[in-house]
Write a structure and sequence with these properties.
The complex is a heterodimer of chains A (about 300) and B (about 270). Chain A has ten helices and 14 strands. With about 300 residues, chain A is α/β, with parallel strands linked by helices. Chain B is mainly α. The radius of gyration of chain B is 21 Å and the shape is flat.
Chain lengths: ~300, ~270
């Protein structure tokens, strides 16, 4: 049987009840999401959107009030379903009494990795995340960025098929971020699915192939990054156009914005863009560039999470 | 099994790093050294001179009696303070594992919540088992060498102390799972131990209580609450007087209490969101 999805949720919900008074707060509401196997998937949302609750439900740290979650086709409530998962939590608190190597050994044992394999894997992983000299040092001596790298090594130790990373580059310097992305890219090329929960839009935009944006516990937007960012219109940059020809183009329904080297003419669709280009040529103007006009992830995020009075 | 042993080893490492492990063993060593020092005053010779030399038979009886008395009171001291220290040392080990950021990572591993809690429970218990064996057998050895009287009944303190601690540890786990408070995890089992002393006076209380319902409540509580006081008293008298005691009733009622509390802890832990 082929498994198409690493993560599969159907109508997943979590409602918290206040201790006294019984007031209900819906953290996640009827969330249906499919994460295909082998992709880089980003989950975004403003604070309190329900991202962490959603991730915790996948890992069975939080019990859903309704709906279901599956990991590689297995019910997420079963401990066995978590065997192929590598997880790096946000605000992790690794036992500070352990050394870096000791911590990897402990979590490796809990992941079911035999002792001999742990001893083989740990030095290599410490080297991979740039901590090869820090293995025998107690964790309490580590900086935030080093803890994050160690956390990533912990998540990778047992050859996971799905990595769930909560703010993976939080506290890591820019070169460290690049290294982490390179490690993750290598893993995805080997078929590992990477699911990132982050508030760093630029990180998700540059790294992920798929994105989902949550708002107030619901899925506000979801899809392939390239398609979501592509938009539907086109921009024609042109120069050497007279005022009369610009007025004629404007009258045809185009939006004209003055740019440094001429004008940027925005067309709503392909046919209209071709019409605009014909008019530019007829007027003796010069076409400098022709590009599909796309939105940035920030634009999409702000639009998807805007208050709508609901 | 690998997971279970890893959890036990982790509890050990945490206890060691928090100095709980070394603290317990240092205090135990200090107590053993104290006995060694006190018994430099030769117990046997001291007892002979203190009791006077009437006859050989009487002298032997008196020395035996003196040693029994020492054994039984030392046993009571170890029982009370040893159990209290063990609870104090164990109280933080459950709340620490429930810290956000630590528990979510543990729960993300392919292990059941029951295994996680029991691994922690048995790791904790094992620390106290080792310490109890160390301190009781250490004190017994000093007594045995110094007095040449080997009273093996004293060694019964080892299983009884471990048993009582195992029952009270269930309460520590229960309170830890519910409240995540180390302070409360000490207070509740200590309070239960004190209450068990009061409830143990049930024969007297039944006579003085005026209403039938209050007598029933008292007796009901006596049967429910673990018999920390009764077991300590039984141990004391058994060593002191070699008196046959009903061990079965306080043991099974306390064990049932511990089991119910531990199962409740597991049920609550399994249902909780972290």
């Amino acid at each position: 049987m082929t498994i198409d999805y690493a993560i599969e949720t159907d109508g997943l919900e979590k409602t918290y009840r206040t201790r006294f008074g019984g007031r209900e707060v819906k953290a996640v509401a009827c969330l249906t999401l499919r994460v295909p196997v082998g992709v880089k998937y980003g989950l975004l949302g403003p604070n309190g959107a329900g991202k962490t609750t959603f991730v915790k439900m996948l890992l069975s740290a939080v019990h859903p009030s309704a709906g279901s979650a599956k990991l590689f086709g297995q019910d997420a409530r079963l401990p066995e379903s978590r065997r192929p998962i590598g997880y790096l939590p946000e605000n992790h608190r690794f036992p500070t009494y352990l050394t870096g190597a000791g911590m990897l050994d402990f979590y490796g044992a809990l992941s079911g990795l035999p002792s001999s394999e742990r001893h083989k894997r740990i030095p290599g992983l410490l080297k991979l995340v740039g901590l090869s000299d820090w293995g025998p040092v107690r964790i309490k001596k580590y900086s935030k960025g080093m803890l994050q790298r160690l956390g990533l090594a912990q998540a990778l130790l047992h050859h996971p098929k799905l990595l769930i990373l909560d703010e993976p580059t939080d506290g890591v310097d820019p070169s460290g971020r690049r290294e982490i992305h390179a490690i993750l890219n290598r893993l995805t090329s080997k078929g590992v699915t990477v699911f990132i929960n982050s508030h760093l839009l630029s990180e998700v935009e540059s790294f992920c192939e798929y994105v989902a944006i949550m708002r107030k516990g619901k899925l506000a937007l979801e899809g392939k990054m390239s398609e979501l960012l592509a938009g539907t219109g086109y921009t024609v940059n042109a120069s050497h156009l007279s005022v009369d020809s610009l007025n004629e183009i404007r009258a045809a329904g185009a939006i004209i914005v003055h740019a440094s080297n001429g004008v940027a003419i925005q067309s709503p669709d392909n046919d209209h863009a071709n019409l605009v280009m014909d008019k530019i040529r007829a007027a003796g103007g010069s076409i400098e560039s022709f590009t599909p006009s796309g939105a940035s992830l920030e634009d999409l995020f702000l639009e998807a999470t805007a208050e709508r009075g609901d | 099994m690998q997971v279970f042993f890893a959890l036990i080893a982790d509890t050990f490492q945490e206890a060691r790093a928090r100095w709980l492990f070394w603290g317990l063993f240092s205090l135990s060593t200090l107590l053993i050294l104290l006995f060694l020092f006190v018994l430099q005053v030769d117990v046997a010779a001291g007892a002979i001179s203190a009791l006077g030399v009437q006859s050989t038979v009487r002298r032997i009886y008196s020395i035996q009696r003196f040693v029994d008395l020492s054994y039984s009171w030392v046993c009571v001291g170890l029982y009370v303070f040893g159990t209290f220290l063990a609870i104090l040392a164990s109280a933080g080990l459950i709340p620490s594992v429930l810290e956000p950021g630590r528990i979510s990572l543990l729960l993300s591993k392919p292990i059941g919540r029951t295994t996680l809690l029991l691994g922690r429970y048995f790791g904790n218990l094992l620390i106290v088992v080792l310490n109890t064996i160390y301190i009781v057998s250490g004190v017994w050895l000093i007594f045995a060498v110094k007095t040449n009287i080997r009273d093996y009944r004293f060694l019964l303190a080892i299983p009884i102390m471990i048993f009582v601690f195992a029952v009270l540890l269930c309460v520590v786990v229960f309170v830890g799972v519910i409240s995540e408070s180390a302070a409360l995890s000490v207070m509740v089992p200590v309070a239960i131990s004190l209450i068990s002393g009061l409830l143990a006076q049930h024969q007297f209380m039944i006579k003085v209580l005026s209403s039938e319902w209050s007598r029933r409540v008292w007796l009901g509580l006596y049967w429910i609450v673990p018999k920390v006081f009764d077991l300590g008293k039984a141990l004391h008298y058994w060593i002191l007087l070699d008196r046959e005691t009903d061990w079965v009733t306080p043991i099974w009622t306390s064990a049932a209490f511990g089991l119910v509390v531990l199962i409740s802890s597991i049920v609550i832990f399994r249902k909780r969101d972290f």
